[in-house]
Write a structure and sequence with these properties.
heterodimer, A: 149 residues, elongated, B: 430 residues, 21 helices, 0% strand
Chain lengths: 149, 430
């Protein structure tokens, strides 16, 4: 919410300075754009945000609980693997753009874009925990069955 | 098609079917493409970050979401509803007609059909259910009328289309005015006949004094689109700045003029705005990486060759592409459809001489049909879930409205002047 406020305020400040003070500012547009990226990716990495997404669940709802779990595990495994893969290269990319500064701001691009690392790592951790939870459930169920037998 | 792109499609479709959120599915598919094509994986961050950073016009999207949220949470929408009630409540099917007019007015403050259906839509459904209308009909009417939102400016899909097609947001907004009113008019005619046949009631007219009073209360809210569009068309603001200024005005209305929003409400409204903005922003980010792969693979060219082998007639091609969007819209999220398919089909439309502003409005209306079409009609899910109405009751009642929307689509395809008349008055040379 902090970054959304920065985005909103930066745009209004830009308008105010241009029309009321007759002194156009350069930094407001870039500050708003960086704040927009941080708004999106910080929120997207939060674990309690998962239910907000648009997803197609007509097939999922028709599956038995067992197949729903298989489907969840496949999905979470896919996300853990695919989102973990670009982390090292993203680190290198951020190091590569480190000398570049955002116009009008005392901010380098590696910090402006660093939130993408948070998003990738947070997604891997969150999806990894969901995957581990399903694996544990299977292990418990097997242990229960073995105990009853 | 390369093996890498086939893998992208496989991952995207699998992710979609096993309920991975669409934005994540797109990103996962994009990353698989980069791996399979041997491309540096740093490109993932480069493409998505630069895409989100460099498109200032996209910042209008969270601000339009913010503005609609303020209007919904501060009972401004109820004041508009009371005003609409005084104007058209006396017609046959009065409350359903109010629903249409309410959506037309709200659409001048909101760029999202979902904001209409989940906000002012609840007021509309409750009023109609209390007024003796079947709940399924009330929900279907609300789902259908909320599609007017993104056609009459402002419009979130049009902002995204403008970025995809390098078309003027202002001209697209102008182009949506008449089609939005046409759709509203057709819906009112349909409701008139349904009300006559089914015996739906009319509302009592509150009298001239009451009507004038409701108008006075609603006037500050009715000025919002004037500020927004006036700012854009006078050249004073960019669309993003206009969205910020109009949101600021909406805050002033909510806190000072109507005194309808407290700090606790403000906090939750802010949270909802951020969540919805992040949802859209992430889908846009996911689309950047898919679009990168689509461009590298030369898919637009291959698609153009395939479709041009069927016909070179602009009208037939426009109809074919609309049919494609209609079918895909039944299953795919319309925002994903817009972000991925428009870059593929737009070059063909330009090649055969279809005006990009005309095409944009047609495609946005097409998307709105997709939002209301089973099995993946997001608006149907929203009105059904929020009012605890059986989805089958909503679906049963939506068909006549879908027929009307299809009729509007056909009219807009056949008569581009309806779309382009207002932009031309403003100097558009299309």
């Amino acid at each position: 919410m902090v970054f959304f406020t920065i985005m909103f305020a930066s745009i209004l400040i830009g308008v105010f300075w241009r029309y009321v003070l007759n002194d156009p500012l350069i930094w407001t547009v870039n500050a708003a754009a960086v704040a927009f990226i941080w708004t999106v990716l910080i929120a997207a990495g939060l674990p309690n945000w998962a239910d907000e997404h648009i997803q197609f669940d007509l097939l999922y709802r028709r599956m038995s609980p067992r197949w729903q779990r298989v489907s969840r595990m496949v999905g979470n495994l896919l996300l853990v693997v695919t989102f973990a893969l670009p982390i090292p290269a993203t680190w290198d990319y951020l190091a590569f753009i480190a000398p570049d500064t955002v116009t009008g701001l005392p901010l380098t691009f590696n910090w402006a874009f660093a939130v993408v690392l948070w998003f990738l790592v947070a997604t891997v951790v969150h999806r990894g925990r969901l995957l581990v939870r399903d694996v544990r459930d299977i292990a418990h169920e097997r242990a229960d069955r073995a105990g009853r037998a | 098609m390369s093996i890498a792109f086939a893998l992208l499609l496989l991952v995207f479709i699998t992710a979609f079917l096993i309920r991975i959120p669409l934005a994540y599915g797109m990103m996962a598919a994009g990353i698989v493409y980069l791996v399979a094509s041997g491309t540096d994986l740093g490109l993932f961050a480069q493409v998505t970050m630069n895409g989100l950073y460099s498109k200032f016009v996209l910042l209008a999207v969270p601000l339009f979401i913010f503005m609609a949220q303020i209007m919904n949470d501060s009972t401004v929408t109820e004041k508009i509803f009371h005003f609409a009630h005084a104007i058209v409540g006396r017609m046959p099917g009065g409350l359903a007609q109010v629903n249409v007019v309410n959506s037309v007015i709200f659409s001048g403050m909101s760029g999202s059909a979902v904001a209409d259906a989940s906000g002012t839509g609840l007021v509309e459904i409750k009023a109609m259910a209390n007024g003796g209308y079947p709940k399924g009909f009330a929900c279907a009417t609300t789902a259908a009328t909320s599609t007017i939102g993104p056609i009459i400016p402002p419009s979130i899909p049009m902002v995204i289309y403008a970025y995809l097609s390098a078309t003027s947001v202002g001209m697209l907004f102008a182009a949506g005015m008449l089609p939005g009113l046409l759709l509203a008019g057709l819906q009112m005619v349909l409701i008139f006949f349904l009300a006559k046949r089914r015996g739906y009631p009319r509302e009592m007219w509150p009298g001239l004094g009451q009507t004038a009073g409701r108008l006075l209360v609603a006037v500050p809210a009715l000025l919002t689109p004037v500020i927004l569009l006036g700012g854009i068309y006078s050249g004073a603001f960019t669309p993003t700045e206009a969205a910020a200024v109009a949101s600021m005005y909406a805050l002033v209305l909510a806190f000072i003029v109507y005194r309808a929003l407290g700090w606790s409400g403000f906090y939750s409204m802010f949270q909802t705005t951020v969540r919805q903005s992040a949802t859209v922003g992430l889908i846009v980010g996911g689309a950047f990486i898919i679009n990168y792969a689509v461009a590298i693979e030369g898919i637009p060219r291959a698609f153009a060759d395939a479709i041009l082998s069927l016909s070179h007639d602009p009208l037939i091609l426009l109809i074919l592409i609309n049919l494609l969007f209609l079918v895909m819209g039944m299953f795919l999220d319309t925002m994903v459809l817009l972000l991925i398919m428009v870059p593929v089909v737009l070059p063909i439309m330009r090649l055969v001489g279809i005006d990009p502003v005309h095409f944009g409005v047609v495609i946005v209306l097409n998307m709105m049909i997709g939002l209301s079409t089973p099995p993946f009609g997001v608006l149907l899910f929203i009105v059904s879930n929020t009012t605890r109405t059986a989805l089958k009751d909503v679906i049963r009642e939506i068909w006549p409205f879908l027929g009307i929307m299809l009729a509007a689509l056909v009219i807009l395809i056949l008569f581009p002047d309806i779309v382009l008349w207002v932009p031309r008055l403003m100097g558009y040379e299309g």
